[in-house]
Design goal:
alpha/beta, 33% helix, 5-stranded parallel β-sheet, 2 domains, FAD/NAD(P)-binding domain, 389 residues, binds flavin-adenine dinucleotide, 11 helices
C-alpha cells in the first residue's frame, strides 16, 4: 500500500483559527508529529500577537515584528493551511462550513477563533471602528491617519471601552497622532460603562492609569455608557451628545454569532463551554481555547495570556485523544500578571491588587513579547529540513 493510502487512514484534525493557542499546537506538532492529518483554517495568513498590538498602532513595531507567519508555521507542523473564513459548524455530521462555500470534514476539531468587540449599541456597527478583527482595524487605522492629515484644525477622537485594551489603544493611538500630526490639537475622550478603569484588575492599577490619562489631557467619562451612535456624534446615557471625528470601539468581547446555531454547549454570552481538559462539555470531539472558550466553573477575563497558556495543554490533549491515552487537566491561575505599555517608555504591572510602573517593566515587557514572536519565527532547523525533504 502506498504511503498516501496509509495517510488517508489517519484521523482528520481540524484547527479553526490561528490564535495564540493554535500557534503553540502547530509548533509542538512540528517538533513531535501526531498520528493525524492536520488542517488549520485561518482568515489571516499573518496571526497578530496581542502583546504587540499597541506598538503596531503607535508605529513603534513593524508589521512582521508583531505577527506570526502562519504558512511557515503550518509547513513546519506538516499541516495543510486553508486560507478562509469559517461560517458554520455541524458537530453531528463532523463538518465545518467556509464562507467560500467549501465544507471540511473532521474527526477531531479545535476552535481558537478569538472574539470581537460588542457592537450591539445602536449605530456602533455603522459608525465606529472596532479594534477586532485586527487586520481590518489596522487597514482602517492607516486610512484614518491619512484622512486626519487633511482634516480641519482641532480633532475630536473618542474611545469606547475602559478595560486594559481600551486604555492601551488610546495611549498608543495618541502617541502615533502626536508624531504624525505634530502641533495639531487633538481632544481625546474615553467612555466607559464601568465607574473605574480596568474593572478586571486591582483598584490601584485603574487609578494610576486614570492619573496618566488625565495628565495627558484625556477627558474620562467613567460610569457613562454610550446609548447610541450616529455619523460624527454619539449619545451618552445621560442624554448628552458628543461630536467626534473618529470613534474607536474596544468594549467587552463577544463570540461569533454562528456558534449559537451549532448545538455546542455555550455560556450565557455565547462562548463555548469547556471542561478542564479544554473539551466541549457537550461534544467530546470538539475542543476550544483562548477568548472563544469559557472554562466551566472558572470564569476569567479574556486576555491573550490565557490563550497562550492553554496552547501547550491543548496540543497534548489533542495528541492524547488521537493516541487513545489519558487527557490532562489545564490548570488555570487565579491571578495573572498584566504588563501594560503607557506609551512613554514605561509599563504598568498589575498582579492581583498590586500595581507598579517603571521603565524596567517596559524592558521586561519588550523582552517577553520579542521572545514570544521568536519562538514561532525561529523554528528548529533540524525539523525544518525534515519537512523540506
Ligand atoms: C489593543 C489590544 C491590546 C491587547 N493587549 C493585550 C495584552 O497586552 N495582554 C493580553 O493578555 N491580552 C491583550 N489583549 C487581549 C488579546 O488580544 C486577546 O485576549 C487574545 O488575542 C485572545 O487570543 P485568541 O487566541 O483567543 O484569539 P485571537 O488572538 O483573536 O486569534 C483568533 C484568530 O482566529 C482567526 N479567526 C477568527 N474568526 C475566524 C473565522 N471565522 N474563520 C477563520 N479564522 C478566524 C482570526 O483571524 C485570529 O487570527 C489586547 C487586546 C487589544 C484589542
Amino acid at each position: 500500500m502506498s504511503p498516501n493510502a496509509d495517510k488517508e487512514k489517519l484521523p482528520q484534525l481540524l484547527l479553526l483559527g490561528g490564535g495564540h493557542s493554535h500557534v503553540e499546537v502547530l509548533r509542538r506538532f512540528g517538533l513531535q508529529p501526531p498520528a493525524a492529518r492536520v488542517t488549520v483554517v485561518s482568515r489571516e495568513l499573518w496571526a497578530p500577537y496581542s502583546g504587540m498590538l499597541p506598538g503596531l498602532i503607535a508605529g513603534t513595531h513593524r508589521f512582521a515584528q508583531a505577527h506570526i507567519e502562519l504558512p511557515a508555521l503550518a509547513r513546519f507542523a506538516g499541516a495543510r493551511l486553508v486560507h478562509a473564513e469559517v461560517t458554520g459548524l455541524d458537530p453531528h455530521a463532523g463538518r465545518v462550513r467556509l464562507r467560500d462555500g467549501r465544507q471540511l470534514r473532521y474527526d477531531l476539531l479545535s476552535l481558537n477563533l478569538g472574539a470581537t468587540p460588542d457592537l450591539s449599541t445602536p449605530g456602533a456597527a455603522a459608525h465606529a471602528l472596532p479594534v477586532k478583527p485586527i487586520d481590518r482595524f489596522f487597514a482602517h487605522w492607516q486610512s484614518l491617519l491619512q484622512r486626519l492629515q487633511g482634516a480641519p484644525a482641532g480633532l475630536r477622537l473618542a474611545v469606547v471601552g475602559g478595560g486594559a485594551a481600551g486604555v492601551e489603544l488610546l495611549l498608543a493611538a495618541r502617541q502615533r497622532l502626536r508624531r504624525e500630526l505634530p502641533g495639531r490639537r487633538v481632544a481625546w475622550t474615553l467612555f466607559s460603562r464601568a465607574r473605574r478603569l480596568l474593572p478586571g484588575h486591582g483598584r490601584r492599577a485603574g487609578s494610576i492609569l486614570a492619573g496618566i490619562l488625565r495628565k495627558r489631557g484625556v477627558r474620562l467619562r467613567l460610569g457613562c455608557a454610550v446609548h447610541s451612535v450616529e455619523a460624527g456624534r454619539l449619545l451618552d446615557q445621560t442624554g448628552c451628545w458628543h461630536a467626534f471625528d473618529a470613534l474607536l470601539w474596544v468594549t467587552g468581547a463577544v463570540p461569533a454569532g454562528w456558534l449559537r446555531r451549532t448545538g455546542l454547549a455555550l455560556d450565557p454570552k455565547g462562548f463555548i463551554e469547556v471542561d478542564t481538559e479544554l473539551r466541549s462539555t457537550s461534544h467530546p470531539a470538539v475542543f476550544a481555547a483562548g477568548d472563544v472558550a469559557t472554562l466551566r466553573g472558572a470564569p476569567r477575563p479574556r486576555a491573550g495570556v490565557f490563550a497562550v497558556r492553554m496552547g501547550g495543554p491543548l496540543a497534548e490533549n489533542l495528541r492524547a485523544v488521537i493516541a487513545g491515552t489519558a487527557l490532562r487537566p489545564y490548570r488555570q491561575q487565579r491571578r495573572f500578571l498584566s504588563l501594560l505599555g503607557t506609551a512613554d517608555g514605561q509599563a504598568l504591572a498589575s498582579w492581583g491588587g498590586w500595581s507598579y510602573r517603571s521603565r524596567g517593566l517596559a524592558r521586561l515587557k519588550a523582552w517577553i513579547d520579542r521572545r514570544f514572536i521568536q519562538r514561532y519565527a525561529e523554528l528548529p532547523s533540524s525539523v525544518r529540513s525534515r519537512q523540506d525533504s
